[in-house]
Amino acid sequence: xxxxxxxxxxxxxxxxxxxxxxxxxxxxxxxxxxxxxxxxxxxxxxxxxxxxxxxxxxxxxxxxxxxxxxxxxxxxxxxxxxxxxxxxxxxxxxxxxxxxxxxxxxxxxxxxxxxxxxxxxxxxxxxxxxxxxxxxxxxxxxxxxxxxxxxxxxxxxxxxxxxxxxxxxxxxxxxxxxxxxxxxxxxxxxxxxxxxxxxxxxxxxxxxxxxxxxxxxxxxxxxxxxxxxxxxxxxxxxxxxxxxxxxxxxxxxxxxxxxxxxxxxxxxxxxxxxxxxxxxxxxxxxxxxxxxxx
Length: 294
Hints:
Layout: H1 15-28, H2 32-50, H3 56-90, H4 103-120, E1 124-127, H5 134-139, E2 145-150, H6 153-160, E3 169-173, E4 188-192, H7 203-214, E5 219-225, E6 234-237, E7 244-249, E8 255-259, H8 265-272, E9 277-283, E10 287-293
Parallel strand pairs: 1-2, 1-4, 2-3, 4-5
Antiparallel strand pairs: 5-10, 6-7, 7-8, 9-10
Keywords: Methyltransferase, Transferase
GO molecular function: methyltransferase activity
Protein name: Methyltransferase domain-containing protein
């Protein structure tokens, strides 16, 4: 028996390519193997006559895609850095936003507080972007324990100075996109006034990471701002960008542009419904909140 020494090539073909080749074979009456062999001969003949120029448009496209991706990643990193710097500088004056002298505004804050406690009662809670601990202090009376995390040490210093019993709350530096690094076992999560600062192309990454960290059956509560014209700084739109931004001025006169996305009640349903049970969505005149079970 003569040994077959023909060199065989194993080539992966994407499903779309295989489908197109099958369609071509069906139309010409040739077998798939014949179609592939003829296509390869044609490619080699073109390459022999024109060289690598036959790939120029394809390579240019790939190069452009790679450059655009690199630029987008750089932009995201710059936006994250700006946001961190802003909240570091804003730490001492952050809670002033909750003292607006408007009855409807204050009533909605009370509504958020009650709904948050109901959603997280007796739970061991992971809080993302806890800031100065404003919401940590409010919910601590209802939960079993809460671990507040934030990327900025300045705000955590303020949170730690609050009169929250140590057996009820602790605070750690933590990245909202790297929740696996935070120790503990949690069956609840809190993320108030963080969701609007997530670039829209990172929403899935954040929610997937959060849900993976908690597991099925955990309760989640989030609240954030409804857009009100003229409140909280100038709203900035950018060409070819799905995110919106706010131009904020601090007491020291410094101005900062931060990601700030606003969502309607319908948009919140669309985002959370595929991954949530017992979903509740509230949208008022100043704030919205969502609560659900993973």
